[in-house]
Amino acid sequence: MEMWFSEVQTPDVKLSIRTSQQLYAGRSEFQDIAVLDSPAFGKILTLNGRVLFSDVDDFVYNEMAVHVPMAVHPNPKKILILGGGDGGVAQVLSMYPEIEQIDVVEPDELLVEVCREYFPDYASGLEDERVEVYLQDGLRFLRNCENEYDIIINDATDPFGHTEGLFTKEFYGNAFRALKEDGIMVYQHGSPFYDEDESAFRSMHRKATQSFPISRVYQAHIPTSAAGYWLFGFASKKYHPIEDFDKDKWKARQLFTEYYTANLHVGAFLLPRYVEAILEEEEKK
């Protein structure tokens, strides 16, 4: 008998993936966690019945969350990851020798343990000697930071539940204060394709533009995300993601990537008209 996992993305849309077995199922203090194996996507991590990532497409998210800000900031030394308990973002950051410190703030200890067991390649990012893992609430951690980080990557899952605080107006203000005078924050911006997700998408951009002098949005195509279309926010105190992007400098690093390229960096900020219209409406408020 065939086994299928289905994620309800809207009342009228499901993402269904044929699975071969369930490798893990458990409940942490914060959420239901499951690991599934599938022919098409390899191992899949789900939280509360929603796909967080899969073996096959997680490289897209991790590379776009990391390389875009790293290619713009001229001298990033200290990085903060909010969430990131799987280790994928930290793993990509570990490619940069100039980084001196990576702080990972993940409240769910069980999530970290599950990823270390079932996704050891990603979790290896947490073993880098420059990485310090703090098992605590991200917003509470951020409240005690001031002028400390060059880059903040908000790797929190969704704007509800135990990570809801990382999408509030207070969060954006605290992130601004925690960054150095030329700091950059990148964050999950979701997808506005479905009407059910548009409100959260609008709210995030409105809060970012009210808190940072430079606020832009860029895109990536991730098959297991909502509508296969995912966006990131780029909020900066000083650097523009295109005007301050040194294409030749990044190419000279000769880093191995599977998705990100210098050309894609520029193209990712060229958004569909319906997305531009939403962003422009929020910027006027």
Automatic annotation (TrEMBL):
Record-level GO cellular component terms: cytosol
GO biological process: spermidine biosynthetic process
Active site: residue positions: D155 (proton acceptor)
E.C. code: 2.5.1.16
A Pfam family the protein falls into: Spermine_synth
PABS domain location: 2-237
Residues involved in S-methyl-5'-thioadenosine binding: Q31, E106, D137, G138
Reactions catalysed, as given in the entry: S-adenosyl 3-(methylsulfanyl)propylamine + putrescine = S-methyl-5'-thioadenosine + spermidine + H(+)
Catalytic class of the enzyme: transferase
Family that this chain belongs to: Belongs to the spermidine/spermine synthase family.
Subunit text: Homodimer or homotetramer.
Function text: Catalyzes the irreversible transfer of a propylamine group from the amino donor S-adenosylmethioninamine (decarboxy-AdoMet) to putrescine (1,4-diaminobutane) to yield spermidine.
Name of the protein in question: Polyamine aminopropyltransferase
Source organism of this protein record: Streptococcus ruminantium
